[in-house]
Amino acid sequence: MMIGNWGRIFFYFGIYFLSQIGIQAQDSLVLEKDKLEDLSKDYQYSFDEKEPEEAEAPNDELEYEPRESVSWFNGSGQVVKAALIIIAAGLIIALLIWLINNSSRSNTKNNVTVEILSDDEITEKTMELDFPQLIQQAENDGKYRYSIRLYYQWLIRKLAEAEMIIWKKDKTNHQLLNEIPVNEIKSDFRKITLVFEKYWYGEYPIDVNTYLKEKNKFNLLLNSLNERQPS
After folding, report:
1. Helices (H), 170-207
2. Count of C-beta atoms within a 10 Å radius of residue 35
3. How far, in Å, CA of 40 to CA of 46, rounded?
4. In angstroms, how far is the first alpha carbon of the chain from the final one?
5. Tens digit of pLDDT for each residue in 67-116?
6. What is the extent of the structural domain holding 199?
7. 189 within some domain
8. FRET partner for 204 with CA separation of 20 to 30 A, picked from 32, 47, 92, 180?
């Protein structure tokens, strides 16, 4: 998912960032070493046979003390820089952990499979099932034959609610068909019954495009039955 993709991006960025930290740390050590060597070269110790004047000694110390202060200041700057780098690295690692955890939760949620009800369960619970939700879940999982089965049983319930049939679970489809008093509805239900038996009992293969065409036939009859519901 998108979260998973972003997680991978931040992961690679984090690796790159941490590698740059290592390089900068090495460069910083080399620079410090070079600075110390330059300071030692700049500061020249000279000794004369004559006794040095007492006034000159403080001058040498005064010339060297600022350099020591500058060196100490630079060292403190490196410590602050290293601390900021460590904090940034910690934030990146925390972000990566958060993204990975959320990606795992998202994948677990998306990988929930549809519970397939048996033919008997669908028949026995015809007047109770939430068919729209079950059909949506079946479609999302690519179970188009199962979706056709649910659509057909949903139509039977609609026929019963429209008082065109008397619903009993042991009745055959053709018995129900013969009970329908409206010829137009009877003709449409006969066609739908052939579609249902073709894919459910005949186990014909059905892809998404074929399913969408057949689904439209079911929805047309459902809409017609909704208009005929008793008030």
Report:
1. 173-179, 183-196
2. 14
3. 13
4. 47
5. 544 454 455 667 777 778 888 888 888 888 888 877 655 554 444 455 78
6. 119-226
7. yes
8. 180
Q: Which amino acid, 141?
A: D
Assigned domain for 58 exists = no
> pLDDT tens for residues 130-188?
999 999 999 999 999 999 999 999 999 999 999 999 999 999 999 999 999 999 999 99
Report yes or no on 164 lying in a domain.
yes
pLDDT at 109: 46
Average pLDDT, the chain: 77
Side chain identity, residue 176? L
Q: What residue spans of the chain are helical by DSSP H?
A: 2-42, 56-110, 119-124, 131-140, 144-161, 173-179, 183-196, 208-227
d(CA 110, CA 103): 11
- Residue 157 structure tokens: 């319930």
- Sort 9 into a burial class: Cβ within 10 Å, 0-12 / 13-18 / 19+: exposed
Domains contained in the chain, number: 1
Residue at 143 is within a domain = yes
Query: Measured between alpha carbons, how far is 116 from 134 in angstroms, rounded to an integer?
Result: 9
Q: Which amino acid is at 137?
A: Q
Tokens of 98: 């958060």
The contacts found for 99-105 with CB under 8 angstroms, 24 or more apart, are: 99/3, 99/6, 99/7, 99/10, 100/7, 102/3, 103/1, 103/3, 103/4, 103/7
